[in-house]
């Protein structure tokens, strides 16, 4: 009995400490609401602290409905625009799929595709019914070619789309990505499926701890075997074009859907600093905006007082 009481007290203490840690990551906005990452991140519009005399310009103007620029290593948020606004994430949601499933499925496992993959709508890398692929092939297809068919395959291996969505939701909650509600493994528009610029940064930062993930998202090209009705080896290029055009980019994911419009998660290294950017609901000019946000982040890091933090 005494041992059981000690276990109960220990469990209560652990829960209390966990709760206190969680609460310590909360801030209070001007209207009194609790905000993950700091109270200022609950403000609307552009959020940034100006620094006079340090030669730091204002963040770039953009029609994107939300964005975030942060120091990847420290988690300090340098600037943001509506960072907790809930919006359709498009294919950036595949980053959460990877965070959730990559450690659960052996890379060398083989998977026989079915009509589910071949009939998936939207972007595909050509997984074809009754052909066998390695899980490694499928991950490259998901993250480089943004193959929705690859997302379906990974979800099927994990118990189906409904179960996978539940696993993804649990993973999002475990890293305090509370704005995120996944309904699919691929990010195609679905009722109620949302994330935020803040959450996308949390998700990518957590995913980059996985060695296989880091390697995949930094890869420029990959060959998908036995692709499509012609059964050919198909060379795919990373849809994150900044991998090719912006020095120092090491990931992560582009996205586009009718409702989500252009979305993006990017990480770049320069002179010992690493910057992470995210943005959502941009009509056009994804690569141009990404370059401007990276440029500003490298200009501002270490000079601009942070407006919040990635928890």
Can you describe this structure in just a few lines?
With 311 residues, the chain is an alpha+beta fold.
Q: Can you tell me the number of structural domains?
A: 1
* N-to-C order of helices and strands: HEEEEEHEHEHHHHHEEHEEEHE
Span between termini: 39 Å
Mean of pLDDT: 91
Total count of strands = 13
Question: What is the alpha-carbon Rg in Å?
Answer: 20 Å
What would CATH call the homologous superfamily? DD-peptidase/beta-lactamase superfamily
Key descriptive features of the protein:
Beta-lactamase, 311 residues, two-stranded antiparallel sheet, 23% strand, alpha+beta, 10 helices
List the helices and strands and how they pair.
Elements: H1 2-24, E1 26-28, E2 34-36, E3 46-48, E4 66-71, E5 76-81, H2 94-101, E6 110-112, H3 115-118, E7 132-134, H4 135-143, H5 148-157, H6 161-174, H7 197-207, H8 211-217, E8 221-227, E9 232-237, H9 242-245, E10 249-257, E11 261-270, E12 273-282, H10 286-300, E13 308-309
Antiparallel strand pairs: 1-2, 3-5, 4-5, 4-12, 5-13, 6-7, 8-9, 10-11, 11-12
Helix pairs in contact: 2-6, 2-7, 4-5
Textual characterization of the structure:
The structure is a single chain. With 311 residues, this protein is an alpha+beta fold. It has a single domain (90-309), classed as 3-Layer(aba) Sandwich (Beta-lactamase). The protein has helices at residues 2-24, 94-101, 115-118, 135-143, 148-157, 161-174, 197-207, 211-217, 242-245, 286-300, and strands at residues 26-28, 34-36, 46-48, 66-71, 76-81, 110-112, 132-134, 221-227, 232-237, 249-257, 261-270, 273-282, 308-309. The strands form four sheets. Strands 3, 4, 5, 10, 11, 12 and 13 form a seven-stranded antiparallel beta sheet that branches. Helix 2 packs across helix 6 (161-174), helix 2 runs parallel beside helix 7 and helix 4 packs across helix 5 (148-157).
């Amino acid at each position: 009995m005494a041992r059981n009481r000690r276990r109960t007290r220990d469990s209560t203490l652990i829960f209390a400490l966990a709760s206190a840690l969680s609460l310590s990551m909360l801030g209070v906005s001007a209207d009194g609401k609790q905000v993950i990452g700091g109270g200022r991140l609950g403000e609307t519009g552009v959020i940034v602290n100006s620094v006079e005399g340090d030669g730091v310009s204002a963040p770039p103007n953009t029609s994107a409905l939300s964005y975030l620029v942060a120091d990847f290593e420290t988690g300090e948020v340098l600037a943001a625009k509506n960072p907790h606004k809930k919006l359709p994430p498009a294919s950036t949601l595949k980053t959460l799929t990877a965070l959730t499933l990559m450690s659960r499925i052996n890379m060398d496992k083989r998977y026989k595709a079915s009509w589910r993959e071949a009939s998936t709508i939207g972007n595909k890398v050509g997984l074809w019914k009754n052909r066998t692929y390695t899980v490694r092939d499928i991950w490259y297809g998901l993250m480089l070619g943004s193959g929705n068919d690859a997302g379906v395959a990974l979800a099927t291996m994990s118990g189906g789309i409904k179960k996978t969505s539940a696993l993804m939701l649990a993973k999002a909650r475990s890293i305090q990505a509370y704005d995120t509600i996944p309904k699919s493994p691929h990010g195609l528009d679905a009722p109620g499926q949302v994330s935020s610029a803040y959450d996308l940064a949390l998700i990518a930062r957590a995913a980059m701890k996985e060695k296989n993930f880091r390697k995949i998202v930094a890869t420029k090209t990959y060959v998908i075997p036995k692709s499509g009705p012609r059964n050919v080896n198909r060379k795919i290029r990373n849809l994150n074009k900044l991998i090719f055009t912006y020095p120092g980019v090491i990931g992560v994911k582009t996205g586009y859907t009718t409702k989500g419009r252009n979305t993006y998660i990017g990480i770049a290294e320069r002179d010992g600093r690493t910057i992470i950017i995210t943005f959502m609901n941009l009509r056009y000019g994804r690569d141009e905006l990404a370059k401007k946000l990276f440029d500003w982040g490298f200009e501002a890091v270490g000079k601009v007082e942070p407006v919040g933090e990635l928890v």
